[in-house]
Structure formats: C-alpha cells, structure tokens
Amino acid sequence: MPNTQQFASDNYAGICPEALRAMEEANRGSATAYGDDPWTLRAADAFRRTFETDCELFFVFNGTAANSLALASLCQSYESIIAADIAHVETDECGAPEFFSNGAKILVGRTTNGKLTPETIRAFVLGRTDIHFPRPKAVTITQPTETGQVYTLDEIRAISATCRELGLRLHMDGARFANAVETLGCAPAEMTWRAGVDVMSFGGTKNGMAIGEAVIFFDRALAEGFDYRCKQAGQLASKMRFLSAPWAVMFETGAWRTHAAHANACARHFARQVEGLPGVEIMFPVEANGVFLKLSETLTAGLHARGWRFYTFIGGSARFMFAWDSQIARVDALAADLRALTTADAA
C-alpha cells in the first residue's frame, strides 16, 4: 500500500484478502437471488457454529440499517429505547431508529465513558410510568463504546438482568464486535446470548469486508416479520451472495478474529509511543482499536499540516482508528510526527 495510509477511520481500509477471495469465488457462475443461495446458507451455518446456538440472521448493507431495523423490531411507535448519550444510534444515525420504528423515542442516559449502567436504565423505567411518557421497551449498548472501551461480561450480565427484571429487550450494537471479542478473549456466545443479549448488529465492514452487516436474533421469536422490514427498507439484496460469502470465509478461516487482534495491537502500540508526551493526554483507556488523544490546537494543526487526517469529537479529542491492514511503519510515522511536534512546541 502507498505510504499515505490514514487512521481517521477503520472504514478507510480496503477489503481484506479473505473477504475479497470469497466475493471472487461467489462471482463464478450464477446463483439464486434474494438469499436462497449456497453461500448465504453456508454463512448462516457459520454464524450458528460460531455463536453455538440456532440463531436467526439477516444480512443488510450497512450499520445504520442493521441498528435501526433491529431496534424497530423491538418497539412499538409509542415506546422508547434507552441508550448512552454518545451511542452511535443517538449521535450518528440521522434519526434512522426513530424513522424505521415509526416514532419510537431514544431516551439518552448521561455517561462519562459511553457505558450505560443498570442504575441509569432503572431510573428511566421507574421515573415515569404514566401514559404521557413513551414506555421504555428496549436497551441498546455499543460494544465497544464510542470511546473505544469494552463492556466486561459482568457489566453486560448486570444490564441484562436489569432488562429482564423490568421487561426490556437488550440490543447490542456490535459494529466492532470482533475487536471486543479479542479484547476479552471470550467466546462470542459468552458476550451475547449467554449474557442475555436478545439481538445484535454485527459489523463486517470495519472487520475487513467491502460492505454488509449482519443482524442476529438470539431469540428467534423476535425475528418475526424482519424479512419484510428489510425489503421495505431497501435492504434486501438481490445478489445476496456478495453480502454473505465474505462472512462464511471470515468465520471458517478465523480471519475475523485475526484481523481484529491486529487492529487492537496497533492501537496499543501507538498508545505506548505517545503516552507521556508533553501536551498529549490519552483520554480513555485503550481497550479496542481506537485511541483518543487530547491535543492542543497547535499540535492538532501541526499534524494536519503534515498530512494526517483524523476526526476531532467526543470531548474535543482527536480520534485515531486502526484497522486490519494498519501498517506498523505508518503507525510509527504518526507517532514520530507527534513526538517531533511536541518537542518543537515545548521549545
């Protein structure tokens, strides 16, 4: 790859070899449309083996659809969804969950790290129970959070227990689920249905695929009519095999975990190099594939002047995301430029 690799987003990365090979193989000959093809069946079986359960799943084009349609399946229009204040479904979905649910309201809980707590959930449910308030019906957690931190298994179980007690359904936004699995070193089942998650959006794009996310229903009864939701929302792919084939190969080869482990390692490597530099503060624990830095305006401008691209948000932090294809030499170059700028700034 050229030496212009950037770390503004893991969406910048290309297609990993396994996903590309799967699409090339799926491109040979013809196959039945709309998901009734061998590749989609093979991918579905791979999901069930990986998660050790007979789950129901659907493939959609992007994360906004995966999250929004999943949440819409859990709520009536007069109900509500409890989410963290910086959850992706609240800050970056352009109102899609409300749109696809025909009006279900997102109730935003204040957090310091993007993590919901049982106490926050309980306060929403018990705070108002009158007919004038949209009745809470679902909870969504982002794993990892928008600050790159990972819910522990105990934290997920505690949230799930609260949901069960209060009659709520639990959704997990797993756009970077693979990174979280690698961080905790657990089986996918342990972080999801065994911990009480009902539905999950599993991200493939940030894990090295070209396009395509999966919606997994661990409670099959909740999937009733979801195929119609996908069709109505323009998410039913006619050539479904090109969405499903990469999943089959990624699971069968273990590439989904290998690539996530590499991305996480690059984030830790970068964090170690910049930790303690004058004027540089690591704002959140580095637990997945993202590093959030508090930088002065001078340092921010300096990095931009040297050609580095990154987003500045969440408390004014500069976010650097690492992907399956992140080059250690390029990570080192970024750290070296930041080190040089801090030295000049101090002088």
UniProtKB/TrEMBL annotation:
<keyword id="KW-0456">Lyase</keyword>
<dbReference type="InterPro" id="IPR026273">
    <property type="entry name" value="Low_specificity_L-TA_bact"/>
</dbReference>
<comment type="similarity">
    <text>Belongs to the threonine aldolase family.</text>
</comment>
<keyword id="KW-0663">Pyridoxal phosphate</keyword>
<dbReference type="GO" id="GO:0004793">
    <property type="term" value="F:threonine aldolase activity"/>
</dbReference>
<feature type="domain" description="Aromatic amino acid beta-eliminating lyase/threonine aldolase">
    <location>
        <begin position="6"/>
        <end position="296"/>
    </location>
</feature>
<dbReference type="InterPro" id="IPR001597">
    <property type="entry name" value="ArAA_b-elim_lyase/Thr_aldolase"/>
</dbReference>
<dbReference type="Pfam" id="PF01212">
    <property type="entry name" value="Beta_elim_lyase"/>
</dbReference>
<protein>
    <recommendedName>
        <fullName>L-threonine aldolase</fullName>
        <ecNumber>4.1.2.48</ecNumber>
    </recommendedName>
</protein>
<dbReference type="InterPro" id="IPR015424">
    <property type="entry name" value="PyrdxlP-dep_Trfase"/>
</dbReference>
<dbReference type="GO" id="GO:0006567">
    <property type="term" value="P:L-threonine catabolic process"/>
</dbReference>
<dbReference type="InterPro" id="IPR015422">
    <property type="entry name" value="PyrdxlP-dep_Trfase_small"/>
</dbReference>
<comment type="function">
    <text>Catalyzes the cleavage of L-allo-threonine and L-threonine to glycine and acetaldehyde.</text>
</comment>
<comment type="subunit">
    <text>Homotetramer.</text>
</comment>
<dbReference type="InterPro" id="IPR015421">
    <property type="entry name" value="PyrdxlP-dep_Trfase_major"/>
</dbReference>
